[in-house]
Amino acid sequence: MNIADLLLMELHTAEKTKQKNMDIINLLLKELEAEFNITKKFLAILPADKFDWAPHEKSMKMKSLVVHITDLPRWVSLALTTDGLDFETEPYTEPPVESSDDLVKILEKNYAAGKAALEKADESDLNGRWVLSMGKQVLADYSKYETIRHSLSQTTHHRAQLGVYLRLLNIPVPGSYGPSADDQNF
């Protein structure tokens, strides 16, 4: 085997590795879009007169829960464009929300930011470190990939909580990954 053959093999291996990692990004984009579409169905049916409701004294009010859900796609962008978030220097402020339309607009904006950041990403962006803190207290120390996965898992987790809220309020629960008792569409 001559040097030209070795170089061609190395280029081919590098291209396969790049493609494999781009597949990860494409899979994340697909999952982000799916979670966005499911979440949008849930937000679109929320009655504003129930925003202050919670199923238990230890539970979040519905409005705080759904605002948090709308924020989670933005964490994809945060993961890829920053090295972390310190709540001591950047305290969280809940955006004003008066209606389900407001929630859908926030979700759409944050989804667009997350999607755009992922579309610009490459393999090296997924490996960087991302730290969530409150001053000197480290709340999470993840890779950027793990931060993205965490935001997607949080979306699923909190949307499931919202499904319980809806059920307890006797509001039909949309299907998520298949039919629900109220929505037989698959």
UniProtKB/TrEMBL annotation:
Q: Does Metal-binding show up as a keyword for this record?
A: yes
Looking up Gene3D superfamilies in the UniProt record yields: dinb family like domain
The answer to whether keyword Metal-binding applies is yes
The UniProt record gives the binding positions of a divalent metal cation as H68, H158
Keyword terms? Metal-binding
The protein's matches in InterPro entries, at most eight in alphabetical order, are given as: DinB, DinB/YfiT-like
Q: Name one GO molecular function term.
A: metal ion binding
The superkingdom of the source organism is Bacteria
Family recorded in the similarity comment: Belongs to the DinB family.
Write the protein's name: DinB family protein
The record lists the organism as Pedobacter sp. KACC 23697
Output the lineage of the source organism.
Bacteria, Pseudomonadati, Bacteroidota, Sphingobacteriia, Sphingobacteriales
